[in-house]
Amino acid sequence: MKVLAINGGAQKNRNTAKMLQSALDGAAEAGASGETVHLYDLNYKGCIGCHACKLKGGSSFGRCVQKDGLTEVLEKAINADVLLLASPMYFNDVTGALRSFMERLFFPAITYNKERTPLYPHPIKAGWLFTMNAPGEFYDTFFKGIINSSNWILGPSEYTIAYGTKQFEDYSKYEADMFDVPAVTKRHEEQFPKDCEAAREMGKRLAANNDLYIGGNI
Ligand SMILES: Cc1cc2nc3c(=O)[nH]c(=O)nc-3n(C[C@H](O)[C@H](O)[C@H](O)COP(=O)(O)O)c2cc1C
């Protein structure tokens, strides 16, 4: 089992990266090997709508034609058994970095033919992780939209979240008096470890469950 963890957050040691690491640890417990890619370390753009990935007989059919910092990562993602994709919520969406990655990974896999069968060689199980200040369930519809696309284009997908996260190490240093700091701190101490545990379980579950490849029930 090959697992690729994609950190769509800019920070390498905060909520999102910690949850992602927990998911990767869970996958490792199930015997998978994995690595993490930090998208903010790479230079790349989103989809440019050139349609080279859809050109009949084209040399880049089913693959993104752009050659940049994402090219190697996309190839690794397509060949992974499990993808773990993590992002903080930025303005009611995933970060621009993850959004651009999704465009480059998702669009080449889809066709506009009637069957709409995705083009990647095997199903890729996907575990999504989202962190946010907002209350739980705030973004349920958004997450379900991502999971629908992910189920179709990649393979069986699920997600886990951490909400009401601690954004600042020391709230007193920032213009941030809208927050109930003791409540956020308490939540961070009590709930965030549980969120990481849920992430670990998800990573373990995705890496352990091999049924999908026996008889290809997708
Ligand atoms: C640019 C920016 C935009 C944000 N937008 C949202 C938002 O729309 N909804 C939300 O719930 N939190 C929002 N947040 C808060 C972060 O999603 C939240 O603190 C997250 O857990 C940060 O992850 P990190 O600790 O890995 O950086 C935003 C933070 C930043 C820096």
Walk me through the structure:
The protein has one domain (2-213): 3-Layer(aba) Sandwich (Rossmann fold). It has helices at residues 15-29, 71-79, 96-106, 140-153, 181-190, 192-208, and strands spanning 2-7, 33-38, 82-88, 125-132, 157-163. It starts with a strand and ends in a 10-residue tail after the last helix. By secondary structure, it is α/β, with parallel strands linked by helices. The protein binds flavin mononucleotide.
Quick structural summary:
With 218 residues, the chain is of the alpha/beta class. The chain has helices at residues 15-29, 71-79, 96-106, 140-153, 181-190, 192-208, and strands spanning 2-7, 33-38, 82-88, 125-132, 157-163. It is globular, with a radius of gyration of 18 Å.
For the structure shown, list the relevant keywords.
218 residues; alpha/beta; Rossmann fold; 5-stranded parallel sheet; 5 strands; 35% helix; binds flavin mononucleotide
Number of domains: 1
Share in helix: 25-40%
Task: Characterize the largest beta sheet: strand count, sense, and whether it forms a barrel.
Answer: 5 strands, parallel
User: Which percent band covers the strand fraction?
Assistant: 15-25%
Taking the alpha carbons of the first and last residues, their distance comes to 18 Å
Q: Report the top-level CATH class.
A: Alpha Beta
Backbone shape? globular
Bound molecules: flavin mononucleotide
In total, how many beta strands?
A: 5
Q: How would you name the CATH homologous superfamily?
A: Flavodoxin domain
Give the uncertain stretches in residue-range form: 213-218
Average pLDDT confidence is 94
**Secondary structural class:** alpha/beta
* Strand numbers in spatial order across the main sheet: 2-1-3-4-5
Order of helices and strands: EHEHEHEHEHH
Please tell me how large the radius of gyration is.
Answer: 18 Å
